[in-house]
Amino acid sequence: MIDAPSVGLLSLFLASILTSNVLLANFLGTCSFISISKDFKSSMGLGVAVTLVIGITAAVCWAVLHFIIQPLGIEYLSFIIFIIVIAGVVQMLEMIIDRFSPALYLALGIFLPLITVNCAVLGVILFMQIRKYNFPQAVIFGFGSGAGWWLAIMLLASIRKKLDSNNAIPAGLKGTGITLITIGFMAMAFVGFSGMIAVQ
User: What's 66's DSSP letter?
Assistant: First the structure.
């Protein structure tokens, strides 16, 4: 394993997408991942939204942690403060999407405001705090983790589109069953990247 403070930014970015994928390695944020991946266009929109939310909140939460929480000695309130920051960023993004892309806003439905309670977002923030990343590392890790989530949902949406037109799948496995099996195979495939680099 590579010590977090010494890891290069490019290595950290690639690791957060491939070897430490927040979804396929840690299984965070699977609810919206499974539900939205039925539709390719909605998956693309949600992937972009989650990437922006995780990247922005990683930067903001790093600043809040180092300039407010730690100086005031209120680390015991960090969870609540991080969730408030996440909620604020999601609300801002929700208003922007509603203003500029009403069709995407309607397609995402309830899953857009639910990014607030998406455990992948909070998980990335907590990983950043535990691993003691500096600001550039926090931002890179945030956007890399979001990009990894986006990559995973786009891959699943593509696979599910092919599976829907496949008549060879037994009736009992169609729908949720084959989707969960597919996610398992995807997670095992991403384990193949683990020899490249790992950041813990």
Answer: I
The closest alpha carbon to 59, from 150, 144, 148, 149, belongs to: 144
Helix axes 78-100, 119-130, angle to 10 degrees: 130
Six token digits for residue 88? 């604020």
Q: Residue 20: which of 196, 183, 182, 184 has the closest Cα?
A: 196
Q: CA angle at residue 183 from 117 to 195, to 5 degrees?
A: 100
Residue 3 CA to residue 41 CA, distance in Å, equals 38
How sure is the predictor about 21, in pLDDT bands with cuts at 50, 70 and 90?
confident
b/e sequence 71-106, b meaning 16+ C-beta within 10 Å? eeeeeeebeebbbebbeebbeebbeebeeeeeebbe
Burial 13-52 (b: 16+ CB within 10 A, else e): bbbbbbbbbbbbbbebbbebbbebbebeebbbbbbbbbbb
Is the separation of the CB atoms in 155 and 163 below 8 Å? Answer: no
Helix then strand count (H, E) for the chain reads: 9, 0
Dump pLDDT digits (tens) for 67-83.
Answer: 999 999 999 999 999 99
Cβ(152)–Cβ(17) below 8 Å: no
Give pTM, 2 decimals: 0.83
Question: And the tokens for 67?
Answer: 């300039």
Is pLDDT of 1 > 50?
Answer: no
